[in-house]
Amino acid sequence: MRGAVLTRPASIASRPLEIRDTPVPTPAPGQMLLRVRACGVCRTDLHIVEGELKPLRGNVIPGHQIVGERDGTRYGVTWMAGVDGTCEYCRRGEENLCDSPAFTGYTVDGGYAEYAVVRSDFAIPLPPGLDDLETAPLLCAGVIGFRSLRVAGVQRGERVGLFGFGASAHLALPVLRAWGCHVSVSTRGLSHRKLAESLGADWVGSELDRPPTRLDRAVTFAPSGDVVVAALSSLRKGGVVAINAIHLDRIPQFDYDSLLWGERQIRSVTNVTRADARDFLQLASEIGLRPKVTVFKLEQANEALDALRKGRISGAAVLVM
Ligand SMILES: [Zn+2]
Ligand SMILES: [Zn+2]
User: Are 29 and 119 in contact (CB under 8 A)?
Assistant: First the structure.
């Protein structure tokens, strides 16, 4: 099969992914072989390819938003390639917090290839009505955005603020609209504000602007502690800020009495569960969530990542095999 193999991380400008023929992998018990129909390209892939995420093994095939097929059934595979099922978190039903998880396209080979072997119990059957290309970006940015809404405890009809408006937030907004929520978007950049308006945000402001009414819930998507504090200062008593960012620059000092007192909460969002993925894909199919995509061939995997690095992708990048 053809696959994009990372032998050694390096700057994307040096084309570190080698497109080459490699044996079709053989599934072990509990695994299945998928023919890959499409695979999303994510910023995390760029971090893996460039070595910002420490390499955990050699010769890895990246890609963790796999739409694949086996025996006529289509499956989606996320960043979560597997969990041990035995640690205290798995036993509590919190598999997203597992102590020894496997990650697709990082600790195990991913979907930048014609075939991929995946754990059968981590392949999510796709609901009908979701097209291959449009499903791929839902499997990372979409699912994690959905989990963020859950972590924030969003209820139907509530006032929800999104701080930052990239890949994840712009897929969360239609979900909130489907739930009848009043949505505020605070984001840097005119193009993001325009996109938020066109997707039906009720109020749009700049990065650190405070929405006109107190929020029940807020989700921050920027890697900035200042944004977290801006979100916190927008909450009603009892409100929740969920932080959808793997790293924050820092958390600035803030005033406890006015910002956290009143049972306000700050929570982080870490990975996703299979239930998040299943529930989100079902909802996406019901509400007709259609992300905008830019398609690249597998052979153009380096070009796709380079375009992502340069901010030249309109919507989400997706590889087809
Ligand atoms: Zn991702
Ligand atoms: Zn575990």
Answer: no
| Residue 236 near residue 173 (C-beta atoms within 8 A) | no
For residue 77, the ligand closest to its alpha carbon is 1
Q: Residue 260 Cα, ligand 1 centroid: separation in angstroms?
A: 31
Q: Which residues contact 79 (CB under 8 A, 6 or more apart)?
A: 44, 64, 103, 104, 105, 106, 140, 271, 272
pLDDT tens digits, 58-103: 899 999 999 999 999 999 999 999 999 999 999 999 999 999 999 9
d(CA 242, CA 219): 5
H or E element that contains 155: none
Is 314 a residue whose pLDDT tops 80? no
The CA 97 to ligand 2 mean position distance, Å, reads 7
Question: According to the model, what pLDDT value does residue 208 have?
Answer: 75
Instruction: Compute, in angstroms, the gap from residue 107 CA to the centroid of ligand 2.
Output: 16
The pLDDT tens digits for 130-140 are 999 999 999 99
CA of 41, nearest ligand number:
1
Distance 281 CA to ligand 1 centre (A): 16
The sign of the CA dihedral 193, 248, 62, 9 is positive
The closest ligand to the CA of 167 turns out to be 1
Q: Ligand 1 centre from 16 Cα, in Å?
A: 19
